[in-house]
Write a structure and sequence with these properties.
The longest helix has 18 residues. The strands form 8 sheets. Strands 1, 22, 26, 27, 28, 31, 32, 33 and 37 form a 9-stranded antiparallel beta sheet that branches. The protein has 507 residues and is mostly beta strands. A hairpin with a 5-residue loop joins strand 5 and strand 6. The protein folds into 2 domains: 258 residues, no CATH class; 211 residues, no CATH class. Helix content is 8%, strand content 40%. The chain is built from 5 helices and 37 strands.
């Protein structure tokens, strides 16, 4: 049995509210504790602008993480401290040295400060009047041991934002600490809250106070001799209420393509400590949430929602984005010089395919960095014109075929990739022949639509017997039109399809 996700979204929030059990869910209202941005790209003149908005009256600690497109290896992360109702604007650019980098003129507090040294990679700060432009290059440290350790590997990827908790300036007691230490730390907590809060000029009062708490002697810096110190002091659990959006902008093309960040709500276990970690930590990650998810259950006579406890936390996240197919428009009409790209991102693929043993369902192939073996998944492609003319399953592969691929069916091998119809890229991203993450496939009509089908599925066997079909996917279609020296762009989110069934119980 199957059903379109878009037809189910209205009931999601109500269904979750009716359940007393903690469970993460994909929030159709667009706010949450986790935001997933499907793409950033700095290739061929692209700039990707992104925004994080705190809609609540809580001061929040947030992890911002950039992941390269081949295997979702981390290329940069930092802690962001948002004041109540704050808005953080940032973007990705290509530096003069050929490095992808995050850049911002925003004044919200980050730790470390953007625009500073990071080993062999040096950030920059440029003061232009009242504005400071901070630029921080992406690094290759996480994939140095791979066959491809180039900086260009980070020119395209996607972004995770995870709320770690809220700053409580009224913390009054710390177990195991003496009153003098508690009073001292409470004073620091109040100072942090005051330091990150923006004044009428739009500038935080003192970001240095926030950063000082991660330095030696700071109350977030762990100290075995003083149990009053540590990342959890003055922190409460996440409350959600973040939303995000972005757009890929190419000035030379005069085209921009907007997208919303997918929002996961109720991600954090409210009975555990906050997820607040040091700026140098790889945690929290998508594997830091609860194991229960609010899933569509199509096993009965009518669609319903079920709380499903998955064997792993990342699998719970994957279950929210499982789709048997993606569908969208394709416009390649030569009269208006139209070009269409599909961004296809697997936000949870890395932990499913990078283990020491076999891949974890729903992914079926394992990644190795040296010698390089991409984790490819075969797909099927169907095409229709606007007049219902149908081209059956496309058997030829995307161009070029991945190394060692034997099947004639197309494969998607990256974590973040673009499918360009008729080989013309609206987003100006590099082809896989040029070490980019773009595949080309022919489209038989000037205008129409297509569907890409995924063959795999993820089973849950411990009591539920629920199967969700397909793969976890986020993304959108970007279409550009040209008219002389003018061009226009628009984007549309992929249409997804939830499939589910019962499977035989294990003996």
């Amino acid at each position: 049995m199957k059903m379109k996700k878009s037809l189910l979204s209205v009931a999601v929030a109500a269904g979750v509210a009716a359940s007393a059990q903690a469970q993460m869910y994909l929030n159709p209202e667009g706010t949450g504790e986790v935001l997933l941005y499907p793409v950033y790209t700095v290739e061929n003149g692209n700039v990707t602008a992104m925004h994080i908005v705190n809609t609540t009256g809580d001061a929040k600690a947030v992890k911002v993480r950039f992941l390269e497109g081949k295997n979702s290896k981390e290329v940069l992360d930092f802690n962001l401290y948002l004041s109540p109702y704050d808005h953080f604007a940032f973007g990705t650019v290509l530096t003069a040295d050929g490095l992808a980098a995050v850049t911002t003129t925003d004044n919200s507090c980050t730790v470390p400060e953007l625009g500073t040294a990071n080993g062999a990679y040096s950030g920059t700060k440029v003061v232009d009047g009242d504005v400071t432009i901070r630029t921080q290059p992406f690094v290759n440290y996480a994939y140095l041991a791979d066959a491809d350790a180039t900086d260009a590997r980070a020119w395209m990827g996607h972004v995770e934002v995870i709320e770690m908790g809220i700053i409580d300036g009224n913390a009054t007691s710390i177990a195991g600490s003496d009153p003098d230490q508690t009073d001292a730390n409470l004073g620091a907590a109040k100072a942090v809250l005051a330091g990150l809060t923006h004044g009428e000029d739009g500038v935080p009062a003192d970001c240095a106070v926030v950063r000082a708490q991660w330095a030696t002697g700071g109350y977030w810096k762990s100290d075995p001799s003083n149990p009053a110190k540590g990342a959890q002091f003055g922190m409460n659990n996440a409350t959600g209420g973040l939303y995000g959006f972005g757009y890929v902008l190419n000035v030379a093309d005069a085209a921009a393509f907007g997208f919303d960040a997918e929002a996961i709500a109720s991600f954090q276990d409210q009975n555990a400590a906050s997820l607040h970690t040091s700026p140098g930590s790889l945690q929290p990650s998508l594997g830091s949430g609860v194991t229960s998810a609010h899933n569509v259950d199509l096993t009965g006579a009518a669609p319903a929602y079920a709380t499903v406890t998955w064997p792993g936390k990342v699998q719970a996240v994957s279950s929210l984005f499982m789709t048997a197919s993606i569908s969208n428009d394709v416009i390649v009409d030569p009269i208006v010089a139209a070009e269409t790209d599909w961004v296809i991102t697997f936000p949870t693929k890395n932990p499913h395919t990078n283990g020491a043993t076999a891949p974890i369902l729903p992914f079926t192939s394992k990644y190795t960095g040296k010698p390089e073996k991409l984790a490819c998944e075969t797909v099927e492609v169907n095409e229709w014109s606007r007049e219902e003319v149908f081209t059956p399953i496309v058997e030829e592969g995307f161009s070029p075929l991945p190394p060692g691929q034997q099947s004639t069916k197309p494969s998607l091998c990256y974590e973040t990739q673009v499918v360009s119809w008729n080989g013309m890229s609206a987003l100006n991203v590099r082809s896989s022949t040029d070490k980019g993450y773009r595949y080309d496939i022919d489209f038989d009509y000037d205008n129409g639509w297509a569907r890409i089908d995924f063959d795999t599925s993820m089973n849950y066997m411990a009591g539920s017997n629920l199967t969700l079909g397909g793969l976890p996917v986020i993304g959108f279609a970007a279409t550009k039109y040209s008219n002389g020296d003018r061009s226009y762009g628009h984007s549309t989110e992929h249409k997804t399809e939830v499939t589910g069934s019962t499977v035989a119980a294990t003996p």
